[in-house]
Amino acid sequence: MMNTIFRQYTHDDSFEQVYVSTKFLKEYQIALTFAIDYDENGLPTNGVFRPTWDLTKVTPLAITQFKKNHPDVNVKVFISIGDNETQYPFSPKENKSWIDNATKSLTSIIKDKDYDLQVDGIDVFYQHIQANPTDFVECIGQVIKNLKEGGVIKVSSISPSFIVNKEYYFSLYKSYSSFIDWVDYQFQNEVTSVFDPNTLFDLYNKLATEFYPKKKLFAGYSAENQDWTTLSPIVFFLGGMDIIKRKKGPGISIHYHNYYDQN
Prior knowledge:
- The chain is built from seven helices and nine strands.
- It is α/β, with parallel strands linked by helices and 263 residues long.
- The protein has one domain (4-262): TIM Barrel, CATH 3.20.20.
- It has an eight-stranded parallel beta barrel with strand order 1-2-4-5-6-7-8-9, surrounded by five helices.
- Strand 4 (74-83), helix 2 and strand 5 (119-126) form a beta-alpha-beta unit.
- The longest helix is centred in the middle third of the chain and has 17 residues, at 95-111.
- It starts with a strand and ends with a helix.
Protein backbone atom coordinates (compact mmCIF):
# COMPACT_ATOMS: atom_id res chain seq x y z
CA MET A 1 0.00 0.00 0.00
CA MET A 2 1.35 3.41 -0.97
CA ASN A 3 1.11 6.33 1.41
CA THR A 4 1.19 9.11 -1.12
CA ILE A 5 0.34 12.79 -1.43
CA PHE A 6 -1.39 13.90 -4.61
CA ARG A 7 -1.61 17.57 -5.60
CA GLN A 8 -3.93 18.91 -8.26
CA TYR A 9 -3.36 22.38 -9.67
CA THR A 10 -6.69 23.77 -10.81
CA HIS A 11 -8.48 27.06 -11.46
CA ASP A 12 -11.96 25.60 -11.09
CA ASP A 13 -13.83 22.79 -9.30
CA SER A 14 -12.41 20.02 -11.48
CA PHE A 15 -11.03 18.40 -8.32
CA GLU A 16 -14.58 17.10 -7.88
CA GLN A 17 -14.13 15.00 -11.05
CA VAL A 18 -10.97 13.20 -9.90
CA TYR A 19 -11.15 9.74 -8.37
CA VAL A 20 -9.66 9.79 -4.88
CA SER A 21 -8.55 6.42 -3.54
CA THR A 22 -7.92 6.10 0.18
CA LYS A 23 -6.04 2.91 -0.64
CA PHE A 24 -3.18 4.91 -2.13
CA LEU A 25 -3.51 8.45 -0.81
CA LYS A 26 -2.89 9.89 2.62
CA GLU A 27 -3.29 13.51 1.50
CA TYR A 28 -4.95 15.36 -1.37
CA GLN A 29 -3.77 18.89 -2.07
CA ILE A 30 -5.86 21.37 -4.07
CA ALA A 31 -3.58 24.13 -5.40
CA LEU A 32 -5.62 27.03 -6.77
CA THR A 33 -4.15 28.76 -9.84
CA PHE A 34 -3.28 31.53 -9.55
CA ALA A 35 -3.10 34.53 -7.25
CA ILE A 36 -1.19 37.14 -9.26
CA ASP A 37 0.14 40.59 -8.45
CA TYR A 38 -1.15 42.12 -11.69
CA ASP A 39 -4.43 43.95 -12.23
CA GLU A 40 -7.19 43.12 -14.73
CA ASN A 41 -5.33 45.09 -17.43
CA GLY A 42 -2.11 43.12 -16.89
CA LEU A 43 -0.33 45.95 -15.06
CA PRO A 44 1.93 45.02 -12.12
CA THR A 45 0.62 45.82 -8.62
CA ASN A 46 3.88 45.28 -6.69
CA GLY A 47 2.76 42.47 -4.42
CA VAL A 48 -0.96 43.24 -4.21
CA PHE A 49 -2.35 39.81 -5.09
CA ARG A 50 -5.77 38.94 -6.45
CA PRO A 51 -7.29 35.54 -7.21
CA THR A 52 -7.74 34.53 -10.86
CA TRP A 53 -9.30 31.10 -10.29
CA ASP A 54 -13.03 30.73 -10.97
CA LEU A 55 -14.72 32.18 -7.89
CA THR A 56 -18.11 30.92 -9.04
CA LYS A 57 -16.91 27.29 -9.00
CA VAL A 58 -14.28 27.25 -6.25
CA THR A 59 -16.59 28.06 -3.35
CA PRO A 60 -16.59 27.32 0.40
CA LEU A 61 -19.40 24.85 -0.26
CA ALA A 62 -17.39 23.01 -2.96
CA ILE A 63 -14.38 22.66 -0.64
CA THR A 64 -16.51 21.59 2.33
CA GLN A 65 -18.39 19.05 0.23
CA PHE A 66 -15.16 17.61 -1.20
CA LYS A 67 -13.77 17.13 2.30
CA LYS A 68 -17.04 15.57 3.43
CA ASN A 69 -16.99 13.15 0.48
CA HIS A 70 -13.44 12.02 1.35
CA PRO A 71 -13.31 11.79 5.16
CA ASP A 72 -10.42 9.30 5.17
CA VAL A 73 -8.04 11.52 3.15
CA ASN A 74 -6.40 14.62 4.58
CA VAL A 75 -7.45 17.43 2.20
CA LYS A 76 -5.33 20.59 2.11
CA VAL A 77 -5.96 23.77 0.11
CA PHE A 78 -3.10 25.88 -1.26
CA ILE A 79 -3.11 29.25 -3.00
CA SER A 80 -0.53 29.16 -5.77
CA ILE A 81 1.10 32.54 -6.36
CA GLY A 82 2.83 33.44 -9.61
CA ASP A 83 2.05 31.99 -13.02
CA ASN A 84 3.41 29.94 -15.89
CA GLU A 85 2.70 32.76 -18.36
CA THR A 86 5.45 35.10 -19.53
CA GLN A 87 3.26 38.20 -19.06
CA TYR A 88 3.13 37.73 -15.26
CA PRO A 89 6.76 37.51 -14.13
CA PHE A 90 8.08 38.07 -10.63
CA SER A 91 9.13 41.71 -10.87
CA PRO A 92 8.93 43.73 -7.63
CA LYS A 93 9.39 47.51 -7.77
CA GLU A 94 11.01 47.56 -4.34
CA ASN A 95 11.54 44.73 -1.90
CA LYS A 96 10.12 46.10 1.35
CA SER A 97 6.91 47.42 -0.21
CA TRP A 98 6.46 44.18 -2.19
CA ILE A 99 6.85 42.10 0.99
CA ASP A 100 4.41 44.31 2.92
CA ASN A 101 1.84 44.31 0.10
CA ALA A 102 2.12 40.56 -0.50
CA THR A 103 1.83 39.69 3.19
CA LYS A 104 -1.22 41.93 3.59
CA SER A 105 -3.03 40.95 0.37
CA LEU A 106 -2.47 37.20 0.76
CA THR A 107 -3.61 37.38 4.39
CA SER A 108 -6.73 39.18 3.20
CA ILE A 109 -7.50 36.52 0.56
CA ILE A 110 -6.90 33.64 2.98
CA LYS A 111 -8.85 35.17 5.86
CA ASP A 112 -11.65 36.75 3.78
CA LYS A 113 -15.03 35.47 4.95
CA ASP A 114 -16.42 35.70 1.40
CA TYR A 115 -13.82 33.21 0.13
CA ASP A 116 -13.55 31.08 3.29
CA LEU A 117 -11.79 28.30 1.37
CA GLN A 118 -10.13 26.80 4.47
CA VAL A 119 -6.71 27.59 3.00
CA ASP A 120 -3.81 25.69 4.60
CA GLY A 121 -0.86 27.11 2.70
CA ILE A 122 0.69 28.89 -0.25
CA ASP A 123 2.66 27.54 -3.18
CA VAL A 124 5.21 29.68 -5.04
CA PHE A 125 4.97 29.06 -8.78
CA TYR A 126 6.85 31.85 -10.54
CA GLN A 127 8.33 30.33 -13.72
CA HIS A 128 9.45 33.70 -15.15
CA ILE A 129 11.53 35.99 -12.98
CA GLN A 130 12.64 39.54 -13.79
CA ALA A 131 14.74 40.18 -10.70
CA ASN A 132 18.06 39.06 -9.32
CA PRO A 133 18.25 35.95 -7.10
CA THR A 134 18.95 37.99 -3.95
CA ASP A 135 15.73 39.99 -4.33
CA PHE A 136 13.69 36.86 -5.14
CA VAL A 137 15.00 35.08 -2.05
CA GLU A 138 14.37 38.07 0.22
CA CYS A 139 10.87 38.82 -1.05
CA ILE A 140 9.47 35.29 -1.30
CA GLY A 141 11.26 33.96 1.77
CA GLN A 142 10.12 36.83 3.96
CA VAL A 143 6.48 36.56 2.83
CA ILE A 144 6.41 32.81 3.59
CA LYS A 145 8.01 33.53 6.98
CA ASN A 146 5.53 36.34 7.75
CA LEU A 147 2.51 34.21 6.84
CA LYS A 148 3.74 31.22 8.83
CA GLU A 149 4.79 33.15 11.91
CA GLY A 150 1.54 35.13 11.79
CA GLY A 151 -0.48 31.91 11.81
CA VAL A 152 -2.05 32.70 8.44
CA ILE A 153 -0.76 29.46 6.86
CA LYS A 154 0.43 26.15 8.25
CA VAL A 155 2.34 24.86 5.20
CA SER A 156 4.20 26.21 2.20
CA SER A 157 5.69 24.85 -0.99
CA ILE A 158 7.88 26.06 -3.83
CA SER A 159 7.58 24.88 -7.44
CA PRO A 160 10.87 25.26 -9.29
CA SER A 161 11.68 24.20 -12.84
CA PHE A 162 14.91 23.77 -14.76
CA ILE A 163 15.73 27.34 -15.80
CA VAL A 164 14.92 29.01 -12.47
CA ASN A 165 15.89 26.18 -10.13
CA LYS A 166 19.54 26.60 -9.18
CA GLU A 167 19.94 30.37 -8.96
CA TYR A 168 16.51 31.25 -7.61
CA TYR A 169 14.61 28.42 -5.96
CA PHE A 170 17.54 26.48 -4.53
CA SER A 171 18.95 29.73 -3.13
CA LEU A 172 15.52 30.38 -1.59
CA TYR A 173 15.37 26.90 -0.15
CA LYS A 174 18.86 27.14 1.38
CA SER A 175 17.94 30.39 3.14
CA TYR A 176 14.42 29.44 4.27
CA SER A 177 14.38 25.63 4.39
CA SER A 178 12.79 25.53 7.84
CA PHE A 179 9.75 27.42 6.49
CA ILE A 180 9.36 25.35 3.28
CA ASP A 181 7.51 22.05 3.67
CA TRP A 182 7.39 20.80 0.07
CA VAL A 183 9.28 21.25 -3.20
CA ASP A 184 7.11 20.49 -6.22
CA TYR A 185 9.54 20.30 -9.14
CA GLN A 186 7.89 20.94 -12.53
CA PHE A 187 9.27 18.36 -14.96
CA GLN A 188 7.22 19.61 -17.93
CA ASN A 189 9.54 22.63 -18.09
CA GLU A 190 12.73 20.68 -18.76
CA VAL A 191 14.83 22.11 -21.62
CA THR A 192 15.34 18.65 -23.10
CA SER A 193 12.32 16.42 -23.69
CA VAL A 194 11.87 13.43 -21.37
CA PHE A 195 11.10 10.44 -23.59
CA ASP A 196 11.22 7.51 -21.18
CA PRO A 197 10.37 6.77 -17.52
CA ASN A 198 13.98 5.92 -16.59
CA THR A 199 15.12 9.40 -17.61
CA LEU A 200 12.46 10.93 -15.38
CA PHE A 201 13.57 8.71 -12.51
CA ASP A 202 17.21 9.71 -13.06
CA LEU A 203 16.33 13.42 -13.13
CA TYR A 204 14.43 13.06 -9.86
CA ASN A 205 17.34 11.16 -8.34
CA LYS A 206 19.73 13.95 -9.37
CA LEU A 207 17.50 16.61 -7.80
CA ALA A 208 17.25 14.60 -4.57
CA THR A 209 21.03 14.21 -4.50
CA GLU A 210 22.11 17.74 -5.44
CA PHE A 211 19.34 20.07 -4.33
CA TYR A 212 16.37 19.08 -2.18
CA PRO A 213 15.78 16.38 0.44
CA LYS A 214 13.82 13.45 -0.98
CA LYS A 215 11.33 13.58 1.90
CA LYS A 216 10.11 16.99 0.62
CA LEU A 217 10.45 16.50 -3.14
CA PHE A 218 7.36 16.00 -5.34
CA ALA A 219 7.43 15.07 -9.02
CA GLY A 220 5.32 17.68 -10.80
CA TYR A 221 3.68 17.47 -14.21
CA SER A 222 1.33 19.42 -16.47
CA ALA A 223 -1.46 17.60 -18.31
CA GLU A 224 -2.07 20.61 -20.54
CA ASN A 225 -1.71 19.70 -24.20
CA GLN A 226 1.09 22.15 -24.98
CA ASP A 227 3.33 20.45 -22.39
CA TRP A 228 3.03 16.95 -23.82
CA THR A 229 5.91 17.48 -26.26
CA THR A 230 8.31 17.73 -23.31
CA LEU A 231 6.82 14.98 -21.18
CA SER A 232 3.94 12.74 -22.24
CA PRO A 233 1.27 11.52 -19.78
CA ILE A 234 2.31 7.86 -20.08
CA VAL A 235 6.00 8.62 -19.44
CA PHE A 236 5.11 10.68 -16.37
CA PHE A 237 2.69 8.06 -15.06
CA LEU A 238 5.22 5.23 -15.35
CA GLY A 239 8.15 7.34 -14.15
CA GLY A 240 6.09 8.83 -11.32
CA MET A 241 5.07 5.39 -10.08
CA ASP A 242 8.74 4.40 -10.09
CA ILE A 243 9.66 7.50 -8.08
CA ILE A 244 7.00 6.73 -5.49
CA LYS A 245 7.78 3.00 -5.27
CA ARG A 246 11.56 2.83 -5.71
CA LYS A 247 12.72 6.22 -4.52
CA LYS A 248 9.96 6.54 -1.90
CA GLY A 249 9.10 10.05 -3.08
CA PRO A 250 6.36 11.67 -0.96
CA GLY A 251 4.03 12.61 -3.80
CA ILE A 252 3.22 13.84 -7.29
CA SER A 253 1.32 16.79 -8.74
CA ILE A 254 -0.60 17.37 -11.95
CA HIS A 255 -1.97 20.52 -13.59
CA TYR A 256 -5.53 20.31 -14.90
CA HIS A 257 -5.70 24.00 -15.76
CA ASN A 258 -8.06 23.62 -18.72
CA TYR A 259 -9.95 20.60 -17.47
CA TYR A 260 -13.37 21.54 -18.81
CA ASP A 261 -11.98 22.72 -22.15
CA GLN A 262 -10.19 19.42 -22.67
CA ASN A 263 -13.11 17.20 -21.62
